[in-house]
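quick one, 361 residues, struct below
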Amino acid sequence: MQLRADQLDAALARGLKSLYTIHGDEPLLAQEAGDAIRAAARAAGFIERKVFTVSGAHFDWAGVLGAAQAMSLFADKQLIEIRIPGGKPGKEGSDALQRYCERVCARLPDDVLTLVTLPRLDYQQSKAAWFNALDAAGTTLRVETLARHALPAWLAQRLARQQQRVAAGEAGQRTLAFFADRVEGNLLAAHQELQKLALLHPAGELSYEQVEAAVLNVARYDVTKLAEAVWAGQTARALRMLDGLRAEGEAAVMVHWTLAEDVRALARGHAALQAGKPLPLAIKDARVWGTKEKLLERVLPLLAGHQVARLLDAAGICDGIVKGLKHPQWPHEPWAALRRWVLQMLQAAAASKTGRLALRP
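---
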């Protein structure tokens, strides 16, 4: 059974399962989910706890199987934690996890509770036999990075837990938006800032000025989220993220490569449309998935061929600039060139919202 993070408390209230698997790329939510499972296990009498961290190719998987099947001298029930920080148990580990699910979880459901923690898994890992065995034998919890649009509501819920709130209406939304901008992509830091507000101010309503004075700029950005902001036409956010990536020491080459992949996908999709293919097949030809699929689905039909060609030309110019070449009509500094190119893409994406064409020749 698969659960979202916000469904875990209700599921635990209905009773414990013999196996829980947590995977994802959000450390705070993964930690909180693990803590909730451990607390429920202690309350149910799983007093003894054994922790195994899988590191390297020579990990003793036999020790895990033996520990789970051994009778405890101090408690009737035990919690077994298997931590796989690399996300790849290897061939021996894959076989061991499948045997573990067959022998331990099936035969000792009332005596042993198992918690497996993993990082974010790629497509191949999520389809692997060992992960399918874990998923089939117990409850799987996927914790994902919170989307930017969901962050204000999440902050409001966390403030409510500590008996604090922002003003009602537009003023409160402005406060939450400011808070979200400062902690985007870094929920651990957001949690710390929330705790700081609880220490600095009593229960009740917080003003914009109080939040502004207390909350540091601890946002963390990644290139993928920048690309999503660009194609969503979110100008202020995209430029803020570009500046943030530069300040964090991200390589200009990596930023260019990620954005160039999107422009090439746009070109593939546009060529498919020009060849007479319907939009769903053109998006498939573009080879994009998830959030970007929806974003390009909106942008693609409203761009003319010369616009796509101009974005491709700009990608080539930027490629040279970030690698040390110069262009007479472009900034020589890599990040300045990236900013100009990003603004061109933002023009195209913003125009698609109104149905007008951008980047006139």
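Residues 20 and 151 are 26 Å apart (CA to CA).
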